[in-house]
Specification:
There is one protein chain. This protein is of the alpha+beta class. The chain has three domains: 201 residues, Rossmann fold; 272 residues, Sandwich (Immunoglobulin-like), CATH 2.60.40; 137 residues, Immunoglobulin-like (Sandwich), CATH 2.60.40. The chain has 13 helices and 33 strands. Strands 3-2-6-10-9-33-8-7-11-5-4-14-17-16 form a 14-stranded mixed beta sheet. Strands 1, 21, 22, 23, 24, 25, 26 and 27 form an eight-stranded mixed beta sheet that branches. A four-stranded antiparallel beta sheet has the order 12-13-18-15, with no helix packed on it. A hairpin with a 2-residue loop joins strand 31 and strand 32. Helix 8 runs parallel beside helix 13. It is globular, with a radius of gyration of 25 Å. The two termini are 12 Å apart.
């Protein structure tokens, strides 16, 4: 009976600007020491967020000022949250706005360079790494301002009655970022105005809304039970802390099925986002366990090692004398610090704590070797939790996701991944977690860590629905993806994307096993022949398809060339910036000269019209489709039964993260290791 709980703690550079003359990069907020050019200043930074019916639109407008006497090229880099679809880029240079169109990556780079060499206004947005985006802007005029506007969409989950939205800004501490920060000090302070406006609309009542860490600077207006407006204004704010918005739904809400469709042509296919909130309160499970702590001591952990060691020391100090534990550290290679299992007596615990507090950081990050060692010497007669704490930079040893997938398949275990920070290696963790029937979640340093871990703890300590399978009959659906796990955990909300052929009556069925018994849940509803209220669903579906393609490639189920071609085609058709496509910003004449159609302009105009129509409505549309015949019998489970909220606490995130989840955690989850 084995459980593997993975904590991936990687943050990344949130914002960086570099300047270049015609011959190369020179000065900016990532400025090489000794550069003769002054950094570009960030004059204003405005964020507008609209959360409505299961997804959020984020619009970011940032104004830069070039204080130098020469025109320069600016490079603007920042992360988007997981599953976010970058849809619009607009540059304002003087009195003129120029917009972006998505084209093949190599073609976009070639055109950008040619336009730059000709001295024309141009921009280029590319995807760099896992979830970081880079914008090149040319020229940023001497002693003048340039404004950049971006728009992206992302689905929003409700977990045990709590909704969470993340706007990522925090800079990280990976190896590459640590080196860049030394040679290129970051200037991330907004000179004039920083503001964030959040419009929250919910078809079901909302009890409370909060922005942790910004309570004193935030004005909250409750317009009605499901409509809030939050305004944060803070002059001189440094762009080094994530914005997290929590909202708690009313008590005792029923389990439900919501479907947001889009179909604008009776002869074409429709697209839908289905949100399933099971009304099943799964029962708790108890038992005893062993613990394996797998600790990353690579050089990129230097800024986090204190909180890491403090947190693990606190956990080990809380263990029962009946428990056993191992401590494994890894950088270039893995080392069994405790040399096997140790009983958690007071003497052993004190000795181990002293060893942990002496840990130092250096070298690379060999996650695979640390994880492999953690899976050795497992006792089939004892429940085991393996806690992996790393920044997720797999730069030593085996780094191929296929190998990680094969490793987890050797053991019948559940893997729970918690990704702390922006642009963490979630594709790798999804490969590991999905393959084991576990789950993963993102955690920011700005989160209410206590609440996040209480949610996770609720899942680990309760039964789950096994062998879950959704089917839709009556209406032909296809390309259905999204989160379709074999297990469903307590309080978990599932988001499924798909396409449908035409409108009509459909039946949704969920079959699963619970405590050895087969369970079947059904409901019926209509797919509309025409519904044009939410055209953004198409981009979210396309991005979900791209994530599915990457997952299959990481598992070795799809050839690299085939996956790249499929991602490129989806990016071009739905105007998404991907690993294979980029967004090129030109004026109308430039697009015409290079023979590039205005597909994104047309798509964005359609989305803007739909948003204006929705915003004019005093209340959001209720998309629940199982009112007549409820899909599941009960109310959606909650963590805080009495309506209380989760607070932050004074402990560092790693300490709270580990202590809350694993001090006293003794679970027997009924999963046995394969022989």
């Amino acid at each position: 009976m084995k459980t593997l709980s993975c904590f991936i703690t990687k943050t990344t550079a949130a914002l960086a600007i570099a300047l270049a003359t015609a011959t190369g990069y020179s000065a900016g907020t990532l400025t090489p020491k000794g550069s003769t050019n002054a950094p570009i200043a960030i004059r204003d930074h405005h964020v507008k967020v609209t959360i409505n019916n299961g997804f959020a639109q984020t619009e970011v407008t940032q104004t830069f000022f070039n204080p130098n006497t020469v025109d320069l090229e600016a490079v603007y880099r920042f992360p988007l949250p997981k599953s976010a679809s970058l849809s619009e880029v607009t540059l304002t240079m003087g009195e003129r706005d120029i917009h972006g169109e998505v084209v093949e990556k190599e073609k976009a780079e070639t055109i950008y360079e040619s336009e730059k060499q000709a001295g024309n206004d141009t921009g280029l947005a590319t995807k760099e790494g896992i979830q970081a985006f880079e914008f090149k802007v040319h020229p940023v005029k001497a002693n003048d301002e340039t404004r950049i506007r971006i728009v992206y969409y992302q689905p929003i989950k409700i977990d045990t009655g709590i909704g969470r939205y993340l706007y990522p800004l925090e800079e990280g501490g990976t190896d590459d970022v640590a080196a860049a920060s030394f040679w290129n000090p970051v200037n991330d302070v907004v000179e004039r105005n920083f503001s964030a406006e959040v419009i929250l609309k919910s078809a079901v009542p909302i009890e409370q809304v909060r922005l942790p860490g910004f309570e004193n600077e935030t004005t909250t207006d409750k317009l009605n039970n499901g409509h809030y407006r939050l305004l944060l204004e803070k002059p001189g704010q440094a762009l080094n802390r994530d914005l997290v918005v929590y909202y708690r739904l009313a008590q005792d809400l029923p389990g439900r099925v919501e479907m947001i469709p889009f179909r604008d042509d009776e002869t074409g296919n429709g697209t839908f986002m289905m949100v399933v909130t099971p009304g099943i309160d799964l029962q708790p499970i108890t038992g005893g366990a062993d613990y394996v702590y797998v600790l990353d001591t690579s050089g990129s952990m230097s800024s986090k090692i204190h909180t890491l060691t403090d947190g693990v020391a606190r956990v080990i100090g809380k263990m029962s004398p009946k428990d056993r534990y191992r401590v494994i550290t890894f950088s270039n290679h893995a080392t069994d610090l405790t040399r096997g299992w140790i009983t958690a007596t007071p003497e052993n615990v004190e000795d181990t704590i002293q060893q942990i507090q002496k840990l130092r950081t250096n070298g690379g990050t060999n996650v695979y070797e640390g994880l492999s060692m953690a899976m050795e010497e497992l006792d089939d007669d004892r429940a085991t939790s393996v806690v992996l704490v790393t920044d997720g930079v797999t730069n030593k040893g085996i780094v191929d996701p296929v190998k990680f997938h094969e490793l987890t398949k050797q053991h019948d275990i559940r893997i729970f991944g918690f990704l702390l920070g922006n642009s963490a290696n979630w594709p790798l963790m999804r490969t590991i977690c999905d393959g084991s029937g576990g789950f993963y979640a993102g955690v920011s340093n700005a989160d209410d860590i206590m609440g996040q871990i209480l949610q996770a703890k609720s899942k680990i300590l309760h039964e789950s629905l096994h062998d879950a399978e959704f089917t839709i009959k009556g209406v032909k659906t296809f390309n259905v993806s999204g989160e379709m796990p074999r297990k469903i955990y307590r309080g978990e909300q599932l988001i499924l994307f798909g396409q449908y052929e035409k409108g009509g009556r459909a039946e949704l069925t969920l079959k699963a096993r619970l405590t050895g018994e087969d369970k079947t849940y059904r409901t019926a509803f209509d797919f509309p022949a025409i519904d044009t209220d939410n055209p953004e669903i198409e981009r979210l579906w396309a991005l979900d398809q791209i994530e599915q393609i990457k997952l299959r490639a990481n598992r070795g189920e799809m050839p690299t060339g085939e996956s790249e071609e499929a991602i490129r085609d989806l990016g071009l058709h739905y105007q998404l910036v991907t690993d294979e496509t980029s967004m090129l910003v030109l004026d109308d004449a430039g697009f015409e000269k290079h023979g590039i159609g205005r597909n994104n302009r047309e798509r964005a105009a359609r989305e803007l019209a739909a948003q204006s129509a929705r915003n004019s409505s005093p209340a959001p549309t209720n998309y629940r489709v199982d009112k007549t015949k409820p899909f599941t019998p009960g109310n959606a489970p909650r963590i805080f039964k009495g309506g209380g909220g989760g607070g932050g606490g004074a402990l560092p995130p790693f300490a709270v993260l580990l202590m809350l989840l694993f001090s006293g955690l003794a679970t027997r989850l009924g999963i046995r290791r394969k022989a």
